[in-house]
TrEMBL record:
Record keywords, A-Z: Repeat, TPR repeat
Organism, as annotated: Rotaria sordida
Pfam families: TPR_10, TPR_12
TPR repeats: 10-43, 51-84, 93-126
Annotated transmembrane regions: none
Name of the protein this chain belongs to: Kinesin light chain
Domain of life: Eukaryota
Length: 148
């Protein structure tokens, strides 16, 4: 009943794409997230919604081990967030942590360390000491080889 490019369809497509990513069906994931991006680019939407779509795409490409494409989407999402929310917002920490995971996967440990430290610093400032995100960021920090 909704028009082809209705913003509510973008939400539905995004959720379906997330389910396919969890099932490891990356081609279908990408198909749904591209539909979302197409709607968002053609309908006036909140820029943070586009940033979330970029995050969904970057995580998918990271899981597919297409690290250069993932990094492109990470950077787009981070740029939008930095323009629209405070630089110490917990959502920015999520992006830094995702970038750290990408660098960890590629063996770029100095970049991993820089990104995960940014995530930890934001989380320590903005989240409770037992918040699940902060605990995961610290775990990534501990897993990062110290010999850079």
């Amino acid at each position: 009943m909704l028009p082809e490019r209705h913003p509510n369809l973008a939400i539905i497509y995004s959720n379906i794409g997330d389910i396919h990513r969890l099932m490891g069906d990356y081609e279908r994931t990408l198909s749904f997230h591209r539909k979302v991006l197409n709607i968002q680019e053609n309908v006036r939407c909140n820029p943070l919604e586009c940033a979330t779509t970029y995050t969904n795409l970057d995580e998918t490409y990271r899981e597919m081990k297409d690290y250069s494409t993932a990094l492109t989407y990470f950077e787009k999402g981070l740029e939008i967030r930095e323009k629209n929310i405070p630089k110490n917002h917990p959502d920015v920490a999520v992006i830094y942590h995702n970038i750290a995971k990408l660098y960890l996967s590629t063996g770029k440990y100095s970049m991993t360390m820089k990104s995960v430290q940014q995530a930890v610093e934001i989380a320590q400032e903005k989240l409770s000491s037992n918040h699940p995100h902060l605990l995961v960021y610290r775990e990534t920090l501990e897993k990062t080889p110290k010999k850079l």
